[in-house]
Design a protein that fits this description.
Elements lengths: L1 H18 L4 H20 L1 H5 L2 H5 L4 E10 L5 E12 L5 E7 L5 H17 L6 E6 L8 H15 L8 E4 L6 H15 L19 H18 L9 E4 L4 H12 L3 E2 L1 E4 L2 E4 L6 H13 L7 H4 L4 E4 L10 E3 L9 H9 L4 E3 L8 H9 L3 E3 L1 H4 L2 H15 L5 H23 L8 H19 L4
Parallel strand pairs: 3-4, 3-5, 6-7, 6-11, 11-12, 12-13
Antiparallel strand pairs: 1-2, 2-4, 8-9, 9-10
Length: 451
């Protein structure tokens, strides 16, 4: 069987790589899933015959477009826009929009692919998609960001809709950008519908959507720790990133009794051995969301903390690590360091932050390790709740949304245990999430015929 699985994976991957040359992030994301699913596919000839895996790795549609706009100096700038509509078997395409210079087709295909499984895990009716642009919003004026967003949406609006494809935020796209994009969408389409999520509270947004990814990641980590009779209480927590997901991971860690000690950005990380408390977090909210500053400014305000230029926080001794910045930010060496320093639990707030080598280190050490598609699904789940509220034209209270978010994260955790528990009792969350996410999508694809 082992030989058959290996041959299946090798053959599948060599065909996929030949069909999608140079898309290394996409290859990486698919390999992880195919390795988990191969034994299941081999045991189910119907899936193999219907080529479900071949179909699920081929986007239903990819749109690539020119985004021209005028900067503050009156110069023409051109960016490239994308929307990858990966899979609509269980609902309209759903997934965020990323504005970052590293955005390319490979990155968006990996994200849209992961999103398909993640959305299925939430139990809500959402297909998988992802979009974005190589536009860099850093150091741009509000007017430039608005002009870019309007130009981007002028094309994108042809391809989306509340029952077709519902984008949201991601790296570089927060409340400000969603606002500008929604304004332009509404103007062009002359409709007020829930076509974007992450909207402002006063105009169709859901309570707790900004908090949801960070909170959900902590709820998931809490469930993981509980399987070993542990909790966040008095645990030291290392967090990377300093954007939306990281900020609310810090907040929920504090509420659960843990001690967050690091934050980072692409230039370096800060370590505050006394812990980032609620007052310091308030400063970070203002620094990042209002003044759009850099994390190194933290140490000017709190001089007992230290800033490490050009480094990542994984060498800081901790009990729990929550990578919340970006893909491949935690490699095999960093993983070995975390294990050596006694880290017990790694839950991914970001998408694919751990390299395959890092995942192997965690799993060999029998560490509690959960991939982003399970641990960070709270964000899209709450976007799903925003869609429901928009369709029903009602607004739930923060308490109602929080209770639903908490219960969705518990259900995803239970699904991972169901499909991922190995013979020795170790919970392989990668396998659990991949199989649980796949079963529902594959079932829908089989029922809907060859489309
Ligand atoms: P933000 O743009 O708010 O923050 C991103 C953070 O990551 C910033 O601190 C940024 O630093 C850092 N970062 C970005 N690129 C790099 C890089 N190449 N190297 C090091 N640090 C980097 O994004 P979010 O917080 O929304 O997203 C973070 C992660 O969470 C992403 O992987 C995203 O896909 C994932 N995610 C987000 C969800 C959401 O609801 N927002 C939902 C589910 C997953 P800098 O300012 O220097 O760029």
């Amino acid at each position: 069987m082992e030989e058959e699985v290996k041959n299946y994976v090798d053959t599948f991957m060599s065909t996929l790589i030949a069909r999608n040359p140079g898309e290394k992030e996409f290859h990486q994301a698919v390999r992880e899933v195919v390795e988990s699913l191969a034994p299941y596919i081999i045991e189910n000839p119907q899936l193999r015959k219907s080529k479900i895996l071949e179909r699920i790795t081929e986007p239903e549609r990819v749109v690539i477009f020119r985004v021209p706009w005028l900067n503050d100096r009156g110069e023409v700038e051109i960016n490239r826009g994308y929307r990858v509509q990966m899979n609509s078997a269980i609902g309209p395409y759903k997934g965020g929009i990323r504005f970052h210079p590293s955005v390319n087709l490979s990155v968006l295909k990996f994200l849209a692919f992961e999103q398909t499984f993640k959305n299925s895990l939430t139990t809500l009716p959402m297909g998988g998609g992802k979009g974005g642009s190589d536009f860099n919003p850093k150091n741009r004026s509000d007017e430039e960001v608005m002009k870019f967003c309007q130009s981007f949406m002028t094309e994108l609006q042809r391809h989306i809709g509340s029952d077709t494809d519902v984008p949201a935020g991601d790296i570089g796209v927060g409340g400000r950008e969603v606002g500008y994009m929604y304004g332009q969408y509404k103007r062009l389409r002359n409709e007020f519908t829930g076509t974007l999520t992450g909207k402002g509270l006063g105009w169709g947004g859901s309570p707790l959507r900004p908090e949801a990814t960070g909170y959900g990641t902590c709820y998931f980590a809490e469930a993981m720790l509980a399987t070993r009779g542990e909790s966040f209480k008095d645990k030291t927590v290392v967090i990377s990133g300093s954007g939306n997901v990281a900020q609310y991971a810090v907040q929920k860690t504090l509420q659960l009794g843990g001690k967050p000690v690091t934050l980072s950005d692409s230039n370096g990380y800060i370590h505050d051995p006394d812990g980032i408390d609620a007052g310091k977090l308030q400063y970070v909210f203002e620094l990042k969301n209002i003044f759009r500053g850099r994390i190194k400014e933290y140490v000017e305000r709190y001089p007992k903390a230290k800033y490490y230029e050009g480094q990542k926080p994984w060498g800081v001794k901790c009990d729990i690590a929550l990578p919340c910045a970006t893909q491949n930010e935690l490699d095999g060496e960093a993983a070995a360091l975390l294990v050596k320093n006694g880290c017990k639990c790694v839950a991914e707030g970001a998408n694919m932050p751990s390299t395959p080598e890092a995942i192997a280190v965690f799993q060999n050490a029998k560490l509690l390790y959960a991939p982003g598609k399970a641990a960070n699904a709270g964000g899209v789940a709450t976007s799903g709740l925003e869609m429901t509220q928009n369709s029903m034209r009602i607004s739930w209270t923060p308490e109602e949304v929080d209770a639903k978010l908490h219960s969705i994260m518990s259900d995803i955790h239970a699904a991972c245990i169901k499909y991922g528990t190995e013979e020795d009792g170790y919970i392989n969350y990668v396998k659990g999430a991949n199989i649980a996410g796949f079963i529902k999508v594959a079932g829908a694809m089989l029922s809907q015929g060859l489309v």
